[in-house]
C-alpha cells in the first residue's frame, strides 16, 4: 500500500490531505472520509487511519483531508465558519474527483459526527455515488449551538467574537450560522442510494435520535442503522471500534462490488 501526502487550495487556505493507495494498478473504487468538529484526517483513536488501511487492503483507495484550521491545513480554527466549511468541501470534492486513478462509477463517502453533514452534502451533489456511511451523523445542526451553549465559555461569545472550546476558538459565525447554512436532512433525503447509519446507544453529544430522523425522512428500504450498545459519541472501546470498522468495511465493500475479508 502507498501513502501520498498532498496539499490543495480552498480559497486562501492550503488544505492537507492523504491518499491511501492499494497495491495494484488503477483504476480503484474510492472512498472520501470527512472528519468531525475539531477533528482531522486521522480522527480520535485513529478511526480513519485504521479504516483507510482496511479499505486499502481490500483494493479501495481512500482520500482523507483536513478542513481549514484543522490537522495539517493552514489557517486558524476561527476560520472554520459554515461558509468556509462548505468551501472546503467543494475544494476537496474537486481534488478527489480529479484524480485519474479513481473509478467514478464506484465511489462512497464516510462521515463522522459533523462529517455526517459533509457526507450528506456530497451525496446530494452526486446521486450516482454508490453509498454513504454516517458515524454518529448530525441531522439537526441546531444541536451544535445547543451543545456549545452548555459550556461556561459560551457566555460572552458575541462580544468576544468567539468561544474557547477546549483550546479551539470557535467563531461567532460558526455558532450563529451552522444551524441554518447546512441542511443535512434535506440533502440526504435526495440521495437515491443506500446509506448505513452507525450510532452509539449512549451518545450524549449527537444522540441516536439523529440517525432515526435521517431514517424517517429518507424512508428507503436499502438503508440500515446499527446501534452499538453502551457506546458513546467516540465509540470509545476497543471492541466497539472493531465492530464499527468491520461493519463499515463490509457495507462499503458490498456496495462497491469489492470482496472483503473481515
Structure description:
The protein is of the alpha/beta class and 262 residues long. The chain has a single domain (2-140, 184-255), classed as Rossmann fold (3-Layer(aba) Sandwich). Helix content is 36%, strand content 25%. The strands form two sheets. An eight-stranded mixed sheet has the order 1-2-4-3-5-6-9-10, with helices on both faces. Strands 7-8 form a two-stranded antiparallel ribbon. Strand 7 and strand 8 (168-171) form a beta hairpin. The chain is globular. The two termini are 18 Å apart. The model has no long low-confidence stretch (mean pLDDT 97).
Key words describing this protein structure:
two-stranded antiparallel ribbon; Rossmann fold; 36% helix; eight-stranded mixed beta sheet; single chain; 262 residues; alpha/beta
Task: State the helix count.
Answer: 9
Largest β sheet strand count, sense and barrel closure:
8 strands, mixed
Order of helices and strands: EEEHEHEHEHHEEHHEHEH
CATH topology: Rossmann fold
| Rounded Rg | 17 Å
Strand content: 15-25%
In CATH terms, what is the architecture? Answer: 3-Layer(aba) Sandwich
Shape: globular
As residue ranges, the low-confidence spans are none
CATH uppermost class: Alpha Beta
CATH homologous superfamily identity: Alpha/Beta hydrolase fold, catalytic domain
